[in-house]
Amino acid sequence: MLPFFIDLVSRTDEARRGFETNPNVLEIVANGLPVERYRKLLLELYHVVWHFNPICAAAASRVPDAHRHIRYFLYDHMKEEAGHEEWVLNDLHAMGVQRTDVLNAPATLHCLVLTGDNYWVADRGHPCSVLGMVYALEVIASVYGGPISAAIRESLLLEGDQGISFISSHATLDAEHMAELRLVMNRIDDTDAKNAIVETTAFNFHQFTRILEAI
């Protein structure tokens, strides 16, 4: 039997490739974004990041003792992710968007669908499904964050990490988190939990692609 992490990668490969071969994603990686579209992307990221820890907390509150190692992983992961929405706010400020404007800006429909479904499965579905959200978002950040931030830096003539600190930093941070996530995944031997994680992973790849298509 394959370790679950390898099985997850295999079973969600089509969803991941749907993200990386999407024309909008390829265009961003190749040519970056004009400033108005980059502001829209950062606004979407703000809502995704702001809801990330509350979704993890909702799931952790329901994780049974049989999966307590997942609960403890979520506790530690939430500490590491705490306050990262401030990094997005700082990047938006560098792009000329004031904090009050960000806080008053509603999430788009695509973002609401992403966060809403993740809340729903954490609270009403299988709580271990949250690892699917964590995995998908960290793959996107660690694998594609570097090329995307480099393309945006070049297209907007930015210096260093000015305005791209969130995306560029998570390209490194989430590569480290992936090694931790692999260990957590491989301890799961519950078929229902595995299937829930696979389903949520595929959904997050799909819906994050919709977010990028819409900006």
The strand count comes to 0
> Can you name the CATH architecture?
Up-down Bundle
* Strand residue content: under 5%
Q: Mind describing the biggest β-sheet?
A: none
Instruction: Determine the CATH topology.
Output: Heme Oxygenase, Chain A
Oligomeric state of the chains in view:
single chain
Task: Give short descriptive properties of this protein.
globular, mainly alpha, Heme Oxygenase, Chain A
Can you describe this structure?
The chain has 215 residues and is mainly alpha-helical. It has one domain: Heme Oxygenase, Chain A (Up-down Bundle). It is 78% helix and 0% strand. The chain contains 11 helices and no strands. It has helices at 4-11, 13-20, 23-31, 35-60, 68-81, 84-94, 99-103, 109-123, 130-156, 165-185, 191-214. Helix 3 packs across helix 9 and helix 4 (35-60) packs antiparallel against helix 5. The model has no long low-confidence stretch (mean pLDDT 92).
What is shown here, in short?
The chain is mainly α and about 220 residues long. The chain has helices at about 5-10, 15-20, 25-30, 35-60, 70-80, 85-95, 100-105, 110-125, 130-155, 165-185, 190-215. Helix 4 (about 35-60) packs antiparallel against helix 6 (about 85-95).
Topology:
Layout: H1 4-11, H2 13-20, H3 23-31, H4 35-60, H5 68-81, H6 84-94, H7 99-103, H8 109-123, H9 130-156, H10 165-185, H11 191-214
